[in-house]
Write a structure and sequence with these properties.
Layout (H helix, E strand, L loop, with lengths): L1 H9 L18 H14 L12 H11 L10 H8 L2 E2 L17 E6 L8 H16 L5 E4 L7 E6 L15 E5 L10 E4 L4 E2 L6 E2 H12 L28 H11 L2 H4 L1
Parallel strand pairs: 1-5, 2-3, 2-4, 4-6, 7-8
Antiparallel strand pairs: 5-6
The structure holds zinc ion (ZN) (2 copies).
GO cellular component, one term: extracellular space
Keywords: Calcium, Extracellular matrix, Hydrolase, Metal-binding, Metalloprotease, Protease, Secreted, Signal, Zinc, Zymogen
InterPro entries: M10A_MMP (IPR033739), MetalloPept_cat_dom_sf (IPR024079), Pept_M10_metallopeptidase (IPR001818), Pept_M10A (IPR021190), Pept_M10A_Zn_BS (IPR021158), Peptidase_Metallo (IPR006026), Peptidoglycan-bd-like (IPR002477), PGBD-like_sf (IPR036365)
């Protein structure tokens, strides 16, 4: 009887899959697999829970972050968010109060460029992104052409010398490292995206650079959709935008208010 049952299973490839856990919420296997990868990648830390590897805990963290009902069960609203292009940095940082730069002048260098925009325009946009932050905090940014710099920006594809390979068009757009030596402060942009100056189809480089430089200065992600530090790309198709009050408050909490220092 038992043997007959086994053979029946063998004849039906694909039917051997284990039933999905309740957290999968009736989604299919493919969706559940993608959701697990996403949760492990963007919700790797949890200081409050002892069960850091539980997918249910991670799913609840994500639902809380995005202001959804905290059920611990996957649903289509979460899957829609998971499919948006986004920043590669986790939404919950390892240390809520991250490091910051301690000198008043921070240097940067653009080590490689994209072919999507003229070089001078990349320089202009990066300078503008720094100024978004620089005009509200007592830090000055100075571009250097070669050698060592605090923040090194570059465009790269696929595996590019750090543990976080890029993934082709869509999904992860860029990532950056919190302030520190070596890779610390550096910002990398996936050159498999189409970068724009805010016009036409593609990813707005000013918006993305401002977001990544927020990390380079020490900011984590914000769950306020108006914040430039919101983790998913909001298809900000404009040549100009402003920091939200949330962004200004967060960066001034780290570095102080410019009016008191200058
Ligand atoms: Zn980010
Ligand atoms: Zn990188």
């Amino acid at each position: 009887m038992w043997l007959t049952f086994l053979c029946a299973v063998c004849l039906l490839p694909g039917s051997l899959a284990l039933p999905l856990p309740k957290e999968a919420g009736g989604m299919n296997e493919e969706q559940w697999k993608q959701a697990q990868d996403y949760l492990k990648r963007f919700y790797p830390y949890d200081s409050k829970s002892k069960d850091m590897n539980s997918l249910e805990v991670k799913l609840k963290m994500m639902q809380k972050f995005f202001g959804l009902p905290v059920t611990g069960i996957l649903n289509s609203r979460i899957i829609i968010i998971m499919r948006r292009p986004r920043c590669g940095i986790p939404d919950v940082p390892e240390n809520p109060q991250g490091p910051k730069w301690t000198s008043s002048v921070v240097t940067y260098r653009i080590a490689s460029y994209t072919r999507d925009l003229p070089r001078f325009q990349v320089d202009q946009i990066v300078a503008k992104a720094f100024q978004m932050w620089g005009k509200v905090i007592p830090l000055n940014f100075r571009k250097v052409e070669r050698g060592i710099a605090d923040i090194i920006l570059r465009f790269a594809v696929g595996v590019h010398g750090d543990p976080y390979p890029f993934d082709g068009p869509g999904n992860t757009l860029a990532h950056a490292f919190f302030p520190g030596p070596g890779l610390g402060g550096d910002a990398h942009f996936d050159d498999d995206e189409t970068w724009t100056d805010g016009r036409g189809r593609g990813i707005n480089f000013l918006y993305t650079a401002t977001h990544e430089l927020g990390h380079s200065l020490g900011l984590p992600h914000s769950s306020n959709p108006k914040s430039v530090m919101y983790p998913t790309y909001m298809n900000e198709n404009s040549e100009d935008f402003q920091l939200s009050w949330d962004d200004i408050r967060s960066i001034q909490k780290l570095y102080g208010n410019i009016y008191y220092f200058k």
